[in-house]
Amino acid sequence: MLSINGVSKRFDNGTQALDGISAKIETGEFVALLGPSGCGKSTLLRLLAGLEAPSSGGIAWDEGKQPGPGDVGFVFQDATLLPWADAAENVYLPLRLRGRSRSEVAGRIAAALTQVGLADFAHARPKALSGGMKMRVSIARALVSDPLLLLMDEPFAALDEFTRHRLQEDLHALWRQSGKTVIFVTHSIYEAAFLASRILVMSPRPGRIAADIRTAIPEGPNRRSAAEYISLVAEVTSTFRQVMPA
Amino acid sequence: MSQTLERAAPFAFGLLVLGLWQGIVWALGVPPYVLPGPIAIVAAYLDDYAILNPALLSTLTVTFTALLAATAIGVALALAMAASRLFRAAIQPWAVILQVTPVVAIAPLIIIWVNQPFVALVVCATIVAFFPILSNTAAGLAATPSDLLDLFRLNGATRLQTLFLLSLPSALPNFLTGLRISGTLALVGAVVAEFVAGSGGFASGLAYRIIEASYRLEIPRMFAALVLLGISGILIYAALGQLERFLLRRRDGA
Fold first, then answer.
1. Less packed terminus of chain B by CB within 10 Å, N or C?
2. % of chain B surpassing 90 pLDDT
3. pLDDT tens, B28-80?
4. Which residue of A has its CA nearest to B157?
C-alpha cells in the first residue's frame, strides 16, 4: 500500500513530534498506532492523510495507490457532522464536494448507512442521535466514497464502554468483509489488541516506533477472552514498560 | 403555571408602574408641562397621531434601510477578513475607530457632506449599526470547526464550496446575534442623526418631533413620541429574536 520512509516532523514551535519513522503498510492490513498522549500518533495520521507535510523523509505510495481527493477516508475523534444536515446529507457530503448529484449516488448513501446499521435513521439530524450513532454516521461518511485507505483518529475514545465495544465489534466485522486498509490511532491497549492485525507501538518525546507486533487472535464471539488476546495484551503492556521513559 | 406567570410578569410590572405614576401625578397635582401622567400621554397621541405616525414611519424607514446596509457591509467585510489575513490586519483597527467615535460627533460632518437628507441619516445609522454584525460574523467565520475544514480539504473542496456549505452556515448563529444587537443600534443611530439634523431643518422623524415638542413645552406629545420609540425598539429586538430562533430551529432541526 505505502511505505513511510524516515519521516520526521518538527513543528514551528520547536516540538519534535516524530523522529525517523519507517514502516511499510500492506494492502488490507488493520494497523493500530498505539501509544500514550504526545507520542505523535495523530500527527503521523495527519501526514498520511496529506493534511500536513513531513519536515524530512517521505511517504511513498505503491504503484496506482497514490490517493486523490476522496481516496482517503478520515474519521475524527469527534463525529464532526454538519449539525444542520441529516444523516443522509452528512454521508452525501464527500460525494457532493466532488460534484456528484444526490440522485446519482442515492444508492451508495443508503448502502453506507446500512453498512453501519443506520438505515432507519437517514433523516435524523445529529441532535437527535446518540454519541455512538453520530460516530456511525461519521464512519459511513468515510466509507461512502469507497476509499483505498481508512484513517481513524481515536474515534471511540469519547464513547462509553458498552457503545465502544459494540462499535469495535462492528468495525472489526466491517474490515473483515471489505478488506480495506485501515490505520487506527488509539491509546487503549485493549482496543488495539482487539481490532488490529498489526500493532505499531509508539514511544513519546520524540515519537518513534518502539515495536511492530503482528496479532493472531481466532475469530468468533469469544475474541475478548481468547488466550491469544490475553497474552497479546500482556506482551504489549510489557513492551510499554520497557520503552516508556520514566 | 410558573411559565405563564413569567410571561405576564413584565406586563403586570409595567401596569403597576403606570398606575403608580398616574396616582402620583393626580395626588400631587403635578402640572402636565412638568410630568404628564400616562392618561395625558395617550390623549396626546390620540390628538396628534396624524403627525406622530408619519414621523414614526420616517424614522423606521431610516432604521431598516440602515440595518440592511449594515448587514450587507458587515457581512461583506467579515467575509473579506476571513479570506485574507492582510485585509483583516488593514481593516480591523479602522472599524474599531469608527465604532468608538460617537456618531453625534461625526453626524454634523456627514450631514454637510451628503446633501441628500435621507441618505445622510441612513449613513449615520449604518455607521452605528454595522459593527456588531461585522465582529460577530467575523468571529463566527473564524470559529469554523477545524476538523470539518480538514474534512473539506481531504475531499478536494473548492473555496466556494467550503464557504457556502461550511463556513457560512456555521457562522449563522453569530451573525444572528450581531443582527439583533445591530437592529436596536440602527434605531438609536437613526434617532441621534435626526436630532443632529433636526436643527438643520430637514428632518421629519420622531426625534425631530421630540425637539419640536420640547421647544413648545408640549411635554405630553414629547412623551408620546418617546413611547413610540421605546415600543419600536422592543418590537425590533423581539422580531429579530424570533427570526433567530426560527432560522436556527430550521437549520438544526427541532
1. N
2. 50
3. 988 888 889 999 999 999 988 888 888 899 899 999 999 999 999 999 999 99
4. A97
Q: Is residue A76 part of a domain?
A: no
Q: What is the pLDDT of residue B114?
A: 85
Q: Which of A113, A147, A181 is the last residue of a domain?
A: A147
Chain A contact set for B152 (CB, 8 A): 97
What's at A92, amino acid-wise? Answer: Y
Last residue of a domain, one of A130, A147, A164: A147
Residues A234 and A160 placed together within one structural domain of the fold = yes
Residues A37 and A154 both lie in one domain:
yes
Please state whether the peptide bond connecting residue A206 to the residue before it is cis, i.e. omega within 30 degrees of 0.
Answer: yes
Type of residue numbered A46: R
Per-residue pLDDT tens over the stretch A192-207: 888 888 988 888 888 8
Closest listed residue to residue A128, CA positions, set A87, A78, A69: A87
User: How far lies A211's CA from each of A27, A34, A235, B147, B218, in Å?
Assistant: 20, 10, 11, 30, 90
Q: What is the chain B residue with the closest CA to A123?
A: B253
The domain total for chain A is: 2
- Interface contact flag, B252 A125, Cβ < 8 Å: yes
Q: Which three cell numbers stand for residue A56?
A: 524530512
Q: Where are the domains of chain B?
A: 36-252
Same domain? For A174 and A236 the reply is yes
Find the CB nearest A80 among B145, B161, B169. B145
Residue in A70, A76, A86 nearest the CB of B147:
A76
Task: Tell me the pTM.
Answer: 0.82
- CATH homologous superfamily, domain B36-252: MetI-like (1.10.3720.10)
